[in-house]
Write a structure and sequence with these properties.
Chains A, B: Residues 1-24 form the signal peptide. Chains A, B: Belongs to the sulfatase family. Chains A, B: This is Sulfatase-like hydrolase/transferase. The structure is a homodimer of 569-residue chains. Chain A is an alpha/beta fold. Chain A contains 15 helices and 15 strands. In chain A, strands 1, 2, 3, 4, 5, 6, 7, 8, 9, 10 and 11 form an eleven-stranded mixed beta sheet that branches. A four-stranded antiparallel beta sheet of chain A has the order 12-13-14-15, with helices on one face. The longest helix of chain A has 32 residues, at 31-62. Chain A is globular and about 70 Å long. The interface between A and B is large, with 43 and 43 residues.
Chain lengths: 569, 569
């Protein structure tokens, strides 16, 4: 097999430090974790003791484990939030979020998956999207989504007694298993897709420079347009449901007003949920993932720059400010960890104007730093030291494990699969240089495209077999990955190869799951006829010389393979 | 002529607001200034009255006009100094300078000329390098330099009673008129070239990956190497002199130690000069323009990143910290304006590793923002409000006029030429949005390559005649000038054309001077034989069928015309 053939070229490599997994009850991490563990086992164990003690004291003080609010939004390059000087040159500002960064941690190396669906699935499960099959970006209809077997942070925290809620853009698929009330949330209101459907409305005709071309009501009569079922016109704006209860559609496409109204509703419900649980014995966990904007933009402008995303974030900033004030008024701010972050880099490829590179090359979909490094802030007054700019690597999957640790819920993390997220409680509570991670494997789609180790980076795609090419980068000296170095970086060649082999070997024991595919939008209580039609497939079995179900199951693994990126396996 | 033919295409354009130049004794600015003046005449006049009053009060309090220290170094992109978060991702820090930015003004739109010699000439004269012929980057031998007729800020402030000194890299040429003690400085120690000669030493052989190839002592015998006078081996490391006195060479090339020792000497003399003048009746002006580093780099590393420039700036930061402490100890910090800035963008083209883009596209030599926007800090405790991040446009030439204003020396600014620099005292003392400039004409070499107006930018080079091409940029939304906009920016077409015509029409009345060329390194008291040889020319008149003097005078106006950039005139 391919992994083995790769192995023969690096014949002497063994799965280093594997014996450290001494206890079958330990969480299983990726190989690289054990390399660090072998070196820091004692230090980390001692540190964990101190941290556990601190968490116990906090629990004593507040009568419960900390509340967690996780706010994640779209497509923002690292540096655009939390650094007022950069906002100055872009003609906008987010004073509230900048203040939270100044009063807490401003992470400079928060890594994510390079696009929405993978990133959201990764933070939800603590696992790279490649492991759980969520490496495709979903569009109506996606015919796929988060599998029932995946264990989300909501499920883990629920088991430990948390009240849990989701409001916003999930983008985790349109199959029934992906519905968020089926994935551990007590209550949820979510959009299953991204913001692109906001262009699938008659009003999109107004923007003549960016004509939307999907729906026939946007055009004059076309006598050649004969397949009435080809377009996904049963898509939904949003769904809502409670744990164990039915799911209902919210708003009716293509009514654009219904879509725009959702954003208010997300924040309103989040506020209600926080108020409702503030004085309860149960701590709460809220995933508040704003949809930010319709792709149609706002009718007025609140920023000088006027970029679509900046306009949305400036508005979101006001909401964030209000939410923090609310936590203060409820006197729970010092028992609430707030994480604010983007889900991936800017949509520089075919995105709206104003979505641009800031410090790094590339954006959404790219394995260069611009695709996978995002602004991220941690705020927890009295617990997290203010004024920290943190240079450590942290990966979004680490939040899964860290939230579980803070919530006293690690025993509910499954032990039968690799959890990429490592526990970063030390980084949150003790600060700079305390990360338990110095590596990131960067997948784009199903492809392992690059690996980061500290300041160094190896591009796997584009590498030449035989003589090593200049695919080695020093991210301090060449942050834009503009000129790979060959000669000075030769010592890194084997080290990166060994890292990759370790990573792939772990997959032999814990294989990736494939994509989870099914007909979309099933089981919606108030489904419209066109939605019901879609949930059954357009062609019934027996009506065609193929099985429609088979078609769905065999949708391409990755719809961008023709982009010219080399495949690594 | 060409300007006229351009004019006929925009036939209705007149030199707007020219009548505002009512008084022959007024400083002559570029056309665009008068467009703003027409709109803000009353406001600015009232504001100037308040500011003058404030300066008079300060003079009363301290018994003299403010001291000015202007620190300018090489090749740093805007954002790399003064924004700790950006330094975090590059693996280095300048805590002292960052603190000065936090305690004063952090300029986000300080524009310069796009390379060393032009930038240094511009700040020295308050004029674009194209006007004074200094648009070439000098190398040994340059056979050119700042003309005697140019009036420097040192001359202007000297006239008003300032003690003046220059220490560091001048890069203003090697002809006698350019010697800094001939250009208004009471005392000066300067390197006439850039740092590249530091590679013209035998020790450069150590760096086998970047072999220096200019000097025969670096190679074995070459029987084909027959012209003993071809190489500029009479170049000097540094010169020193006092106003009205002789000039002497300091250090002997290719002794690399002599070159490295200069940096200490620059800072030592600056410190001595400050101490000497601290309690004097005369205010002082110091231009302290560090050479930072030899291109050979430092034998040890003080930063994690380790880039050549970052290593140098981290070291310089310590010196800056000491200098500030010294001002405090002398109790003159509250009467001393300190400006810190780079001279142009990073040397991304053929430069050393670590010289990279940060927020903007391009670097040294480029007319994109990356070439011409630099980090800049203004610090003046008690006078400049701390904590300011300023989004206004300011151009390095403005410092000339502003320093003169602060020094009560504007009457010594010549009235027979265009002074590009406008008075930015209001911006320094009253802060954000108080700039008197919303425009920059960007020259690279002798070419007017782009024009900035507020957030908008027009690239002149590369523009197509006839139908307008997509050369219009919105710097808020597209800071990297990645995708010019045609349709949404159409209204800007005529506006930019009018701006250009105004600018060119002013040149008819006040023409650019050509380059000032002569044999190099004349009149050095302790000149070595090879330097004396160079100062006479390699071939004497009469020994050849051409006049060597003629050759020097006709050196190409711009040695990069084959770079493929279009010429605008």
């Amino acid at each position: 097999m391919k992994i083995r053939s790769f192995l023969t070229t690096v014949a002497s490599v063994a799965l280093a430090a594997g014996s450290l997994v001494s206890n079958a009850k330990d969480i299983v991490h990726d190989a690289e974790h054990y390399v660090l563990l072998a070196q820091y086992k004692d230090k980390w164990a001692a540190q964990d003791k101190t941290l556990d003690q601190k968490l116990v004291e906090l629990e004593k003080k507040h009568g419960k484990r900390p509340n967690i609010i996780h706010i994640m939004w779209d497509d923002t390059p690292v540096g655009e939030i939390g650094i007022p000087a950069i906002q100055k040159v872009r003609g906008w500002e987010t004073p509230n979020m900048n203040q939270l960064a100044a009063d807490g941690i401003n992470f400079m190396r928060m890594y994510t998956e390079p696009s929405c669906t993978p990133s959201r699935a990764a933070v939800m499960t603590g696992r790279h999207a490649k492991r759980n099959g969520m490496y495709n970006v979903g569009f109506p209809y996606e015919y796929g989504g988060l599998a029932a077997e995946e264990v989300t942070i909501a499920e883990v925290l629920s088991e430990a007694g948390y009240a849990t809620a989701f409001y916003g853009k999930s983008h985790l698929g349109d199959v029934e298993s992906s519905y968020l009330n089926n994935q551990g949330f007590d209550e949820a209101l979510w959009t299953p897709y991204n913001q692109v459907p906001s262009l699938y409305v008659p009003r999109a005709q107004i923007g003549a420079l960016s004509a939307a071309v999907m729906f026939p009501e946007m055009f004059g009569e076309d006598p050649y347009d004969i397949d009435n079922g080809w377009r996904p016109d049963g898509y939904v704006w949003a769904l809502e449901g409670k744990k164990g209860g039915p799911v209902r559609e919210v708003g009716t496409p293509p009514n654009h007003d219904d879509y725009v109204a959702l954003e208010d509703e997300f924040w309103k419900r989040a506020s209600e949920f926080v108020r409702k649980n503030a004085k309860s014995d149960k701590p709460f966990f809220v995933a508040l993932w704003p949809q930010l904007t319709s792709f149609m933009g706002f009718p007025d402008r609140v920023t000088a720059g006027g970029g679509l995303l900046q306009e949305a974030l400036a508005r979101m900033d006001v909401r964030v400010g209000k939410l923090i004030k609310e936590l203060e008024a409820l006197e729970i701010d010092d028992n609430t960890l707030v994480i604010l972050m983007a889900d991936n880099g800017p949509m520089t490829h075919n995105g709206p104007p104003g979505m641009v590179e800031t410090l790094y090359t590339g954006g959404k979909g790219d394995y260069t730093e611009g695709g996978v490094r995002v602004p991220a802030i941690a705020y927890w007054p009295g617990v997290i030291e203010p004024g920290q700019i943190i240079g450590d690597i942290i990966h979004e999957t680490d939040l899964f494990t860290t939230f579980a640790t803070l919530g006293g819920a690690t025993k509910h993390i499954p032990r039968d699969r690799i959890i990429d997220g490592v526990n970063q409680t030390a980084l949150l509570l003790e600060g700079d240089t305390q990360s338990r991670r110095d590596y990131v494997h960067i997948y784009t789609g199903p492809v392992l495209a690059a690996t980061v180790k500290g300041r160094y980076k190896k591009h796997w795609t584009g590498a030449k077999p035989g003589l090593s090419g200049p695919e080695f980068y020093d991210l301090y000296s060449d942050p834009r990955e503009a000129s790979g170095q060959l000669l000075p970086m030769f010592p890194a060649k084997s080290m990166f190869n060994i890292m990759k082999v370790r990573h792939l070997l772990m997959k032999e024991k814990y294989p990736d799951k494939g994509q989870n595919r099914d007909f979309p939008l099933k089981g919606i209580e108030n489904a419209r006829p066109e939605t019901i039609e879609a949930s059954k497939g357009r062609v019934l079995s027996g009506d065609a010389p193929f099985d429609p179900k088979d078609v769905i199951q065999n949708l391409p693994e990755w719809d961008n393979v023709d982009r010219g990126w080399g495949l690594s396996e």
